[in-house]
Design goal:
single chain, alpha/beta, Leucine Aminopeptidase, subunit E, domain 1, 6-stranded mixed beta sheet, 5 helices, 38% helix, binds adenosine-5'-diphosphate, O-acetyl-ADP-ribose deacetylase, Macro_dom, hydrolase, Macro_dom-like, EC 3.1.1.106
């Protein structure tokens, strides 16, 4: 698996699937979530609503992932994953690792060869960026599946630098 780092906007990536740092409601939000729905258009929210009405009546739990269309974005699919909110009293690293693992499993099921990830939980959910980067890189390196390219798309130079350190 080829792992690359890009500083930029995840909604502009020409990959098979872009990962959204969603929240459990699947009904949209700020940060990556807001950008994905703005760029992809209303089709994404319609599919999210359908998932809520059928397979996920209680929302999507942290650490899990589901796919929808990418609407108007260059990608074909959006894989929505819900990161854990950072906690100083409880180690939630396993949940964050699960976001990457489950997203890649979903990508595998779609036969997606290239997947772009944002820094899940490193925004509003407050995860310290060096730790978020280490967990992201390790989880992807340890995953066994047929995805051939993982692209981490980092919005800001400091998060990009954290991922570059984690990748060595
Ligand atoms: P979470 O709620 O999981 O913390 P956020 O969306 O708040 O997710 O932030 C996750 C990371 O994604 C942050 O580093 C944020 O700066 C970054 N980010 C925000 N918008 C974009 C975008 N359009 N493309 C890539 N990364 C983005």
């Amino acid at each position: 698996m080829d792992i690359t780092l890009v500083q930029g906007d995840i909604t502009e990536q020409r990959v098979d699937a872009v990962v959204n740092a969603a929240n459990s409601s699947l009904m949209g939000g700020g940060g990556v979530d807001g950008a994905v729905h703005r760029a992809g258009g209303p089709e994404i929210l319609e599919e999210c609503r359908r998932l809520r009405d059928t397979s996920h009546p209680h929302g999507l739990p942290a650490g899990d992932a589901v796919a929808t269309t990418a609407g108007r974005m260059p990608a074909t699919w959006v894989i929505h994953t819900v990161g854990p909110v950072y906690s100083t009293s409880e180690d939630r690293s396993c949940i964050l690792a699960s976001c990457y693992r489950r997203s890649l499993e979903v990508a595998d099921g779609l036969n997606a060869a290239s997947v772009a990830f944002p820094a899940v939980s490193a925004g509003v959910y407050g995860w310290p960026m060096d730790s978020a980067a280490e967990i992201a890189v390790r989880s992807v390196q340890e995953a066994s599946n047929t995805v051939s390219e993982v692209r981490f798309v980092l919005f800001s130079p400091d998060v990009y630098a954290a991922f570059a350190r984690a990748l060595g």
